[in-house]
Amino acid sequence: MSPVVSEILRSGFTINSSLRRRTHLVQSFSTVFLHCGNSNSSGSEEDLHRLMDQRKRKRMESNRESARRSRMRKQKRLDDLMAQLILLREDNYQILTNINFITHQYLSMEAENSVLRAQIIELSQRLDSLNGILNHLNNPRISNGVYESEAFESSTNFIHPFSLAYLNQPIVVTADVFQY
């Protein structure tokens, strides 16, 4: 086998490799066969080696350029992802700040509502107590647990000031009256 063919086989070209290598292999074999046909001159063998070296350098340069473009694409993708990460972290921080603020407001309102509920219960109990006292005092039949006559009561309205008509109304209280 000639040294050129052994060089081609040693460089890793196989029939089952990619299309690029197949094309290169075909070109290399055609050069070898042309060289074998012109085996008269030893200078053409050197030309063949130079041609193969030149093709090898072109292929290596092409591979380097492809690898450089690939690294640049990867770096751009990484930079884009880092920028997106920064934006998402800023959004996350803003959302957490809003959640904390709203939670603080909610807890504050909940505490205020609890105080207001307790005041409503206390005021309702006071109102019921006062209405009970008024009902007891305004009942014409009962005074200190003893029945009295109506005639005595009508003549002694000035003695029982709670039996006046304007005092017979129930007391209505709203929460606005008792602000602290």
Describe this structure in words.
- It comes from Hibiscus syriacus (Rose of Sharon).
- The chain has 180 residues and is mostly helical.
- 72% of the residues lie in helices and 2% in strands.
- It contains four helices and two strands, in the order H-H-H-E-E-H.
- It has helices spanning 3-10, 19-37, 43-138, 150-155, and strands at residues 142-143, 146-147.
- Helix 2 packs antiparallel against helix 3 (43-138).
- It starts with a helix and ends in a 25-residue tail after the last helix.
Whole-number average pLDDT? 76
Q: What is the overall number of helices? A: 4
* Biggest β-sheet description: 2 strands, antiparallel
Number of strand elements: 2
Which regions contain 5 or more consecutive residues with pLDDT less than 50? 13-17, 149-155
Structural class: mainly alpha
Main sheet strand line-up: 1-2
Strand content: under 5%
Shape: rod-shaped
What is the helix/strand order?
HHHEEH
How much is the radius of gyration in Å? 53 Å
C-alpha end-to-end distance: 111 Å
Helical percent range? over 70%
Subcellular location: Nucleus
InterPro entries: bZIP, bZIP_plant_GBF1, bZIP_sf
GO molecular function: DNA-binding transcription factor activity; protein heterodimerization activity; transcription cis-regulatory region binding
Domain BZIP: 53-116
